[in-house]
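Team,

Forwarding the record for the chain on the shared tracking sheet. I've put the sequence and predicted structure together so nobody has to dig through attachments.
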Amino acid sequence: MKPASLRPFLPRPAIRRRIQSCTRGYAVQAPGAPTLQVFNRHSKYLQKERAAIDVETSRKTDFLKDEVATRLCERLLDINRQFPLVLDLGANSCNIARALAMPDPNSNPPNPEVQPLPLSSRLTHLTAADSSPSLLHRDVNLPFNETLSITRETLQDEEFLPYEENTFDAVLSSLSLHWINNLPSVLSQINRILKPDAPFMAVMFGGDTLFELRTSLQLADLERRGGVSPHVSPLADVRDVGGLLGKAGFKMLTVDVDDIIVDYPTTFALMADLQAMGESNAVLGREMSGIRREVLLANEAIYKELHGNEDGSVPATFRMIYMIGWKEGEGQAKPLPRGTGQINMKDILEGGGNIKTDN
């Protein structure tokens, strides 16, 4: 006997719905130029959040960021103007706000007993923005907050700035831009939110920062494992910064370099400080399990052999790249066209030529 078929008893709409649900998806390239992802931004967020949990250790290791922020704010003294609205992009623990609370050396009170005005007297309001809320609000109760008007804003990501065009009279950034994946895009956004003829002043790690640690870890990896893994993040070179600022639309560029060398008792103390600063490695291709013990021990010996001081300590070089760029505006000073100079620099440097003047 022929078996009964179940197909006639199935509802046709059910069969039709089942067939329609069979769809195929395709990967689509986002519009615009593709962005090379070097850093894991979520890992960097977690590193900064963990660093802010241990408040005392985090404050002790802030000595480098405080020093660099102070040197950056001193450059405001070269600009003779007031800044009503200022943005501190990538504020970390508000190191720039702390530096602005220091006395302005150019303020000369008539009475010697009167304290000079702080650097914050040059601005009206500071907006401190960072993606780590714990680090951003770590020092909210310290006295420096009373010396200036400050607002703290938590950003979803420093690579996307949620501000309107022509908002700020100046944008400052201290030791934050070196973790940005798409630096050309961020610089263009900074140029957009600046008012015409407003400055952008920043400092970032770059170039040969921690070259001692980088080379010793590579040699330790080769010796113990036969290969190399990225343990130190890649950094921008000073020769690239000027080109990036120019492509972003900034004018009257100034880029210079400053090295700060810090001596540590051991490489383990150096890496502990980097972790407490929230400056641990965040490269996408890094090993998630961390550096092996035998590699760390080999790194300690190689570091001291190649770079160690006579007293047994180890130096760590931090190279700072300072940059200043101005958004184009009416009445802004502009350089003369090439070839219009009246003085030959060769004559001045060599001292053997005569400088012709109109007098």
